[in-house]
Design brief:
The protein has 153 residues and is mainly alpha-helical. It is built from seven helices and six strands, in the order ββαβααβαβααβα. It has two domains: 82 residues, Recoverin, domain 1; 55 residues, Recoverin, domain 1 (Orthogonal Bundle). Bound molecules: calcium ion (CA). The site of calcium ion (CA) has 6 residues, from strand 6.
Length: 153
């Protein structure tokens, strides 16, 4: 199963289906949105607070209070993808954080962004993006700021 470019293995889909079934107590092919967090927990995934609500809303657009299997599998794949992206960004950050200060220099960040940006992105655009994310204007960006920049969250 493919979710937004992330390939979920058959075994993973199987586990997710089993967990879904476990929470679908009345066998109505749906689980309560309140069970999304605990269901993810059984799959060893963490989703909390506002994000949990946002994600439930994403697949329960009519606010029924329930999530069907299709929606659940979508969120499951999305979460796996998010966690993978997080790991990849952690690794990229670690490489750029040469002096292990927990922050990366905006000059290094600018270099990285110019490599991954598309052709229409100008140097000014990149400067703007970095200025926006380096909220304290320290000339360095910590992981949280970096993550926001790379995921536009
Ligand atoms: Ca900063």
């Amino acid at each position: 199963m493919n979710v937004e470019g992330y390939e979920v293995t058959d075994d993973q889909v199987k586990s997710a289906k089993e967990v879904f079934k476990h929470f679908d107590k009345k066998g109505q092919e749906r689980i309560s949105t309140n069970d999304l967090g605990p269901a993810f927990g059984e799959l060893k995934l963490q989703l909390k607070g506002d994000k949990l609500k946002d994600w439930a809303d994403m697949v329960d657009s009519e606010a029924t209070g329930f999530i069907d299997l299709e929606g659940f599998l979508y969120l499951y794949g999305k979460k796996l993808k998010d966690d993978q992206d997080y790991k990849d960004l952690k690794e990229a950050f670690r490489v750029l954080d040469k002096n292990k200060t927990g922050e990366i220099d905006t000059a290094d960040l600018k270099w990285l962004m110019s490599k991954i940006a598309d052709k229409d992105t100008t140097e000014d655009d990149i400067d703007d993006m970095i200025r926006e994310v380096d909220t304290d204007g320290s000339g360095a960006v910590d992981f949280e700021e970096f993550y926001k920049l790379m995921t536009s969250e």
